[in-house]
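From the shared-data thread, chain only:
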Amino acid sequence: RGATTTAAAAAKRYAHLVAWDENGMSSLKRHAGELDAVIGEWLSIARPAAGLHRSSPAIEDHVRRWSAKNAPGLQILPLVNNYNNDEKRWDGELVHELLASPEKSSELIRQLASYLVEGGYPGMVLDFEQFSLKSRGQDVDFTRALGSHLRSIGKTLAVQISMNDAAYDAQALGAAADEIIVMTYDEHTEE
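Structure, as tokens:
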């Protein structure tokens, strides 16, 4: 019982804040005191160049201002994903194109580092989903390069993974990132 209590006390408490659900901010206001970090889901990689896209600058700004005033100890960790909002789907092929191109990968790392520094964020969360097994080793290489660069400027990297997806090399990603966040919920569609 003592070990469980110690582990629970040491656990970090995260919450996701998605820009597309207006209830998110209300929930954050009610629960900010119970959290260590909020993961802001307002960044994605986008075509044509696999560069950084900010989907909701107004929401991002509101969360930052509210948190600074009302929950100054709450960390805000922006999340970057490969969800294509226009097509309403995860773009695994875009992840492959990004990871297969050293130029595109380096440019995205530069953009992410600049974004974190300019925004005063302590780190970020990487959430690339539904990419193919052909990108598995490249995903680890990108994560290693991104994590190394972010640590060199005093920032952290967490990676979200699904344990039921063979495209993720959990052990290698765990070594490349500062933290792993395991997605244990069920994803499905009505199709």
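The chain is about 45% helix and 25% strand.
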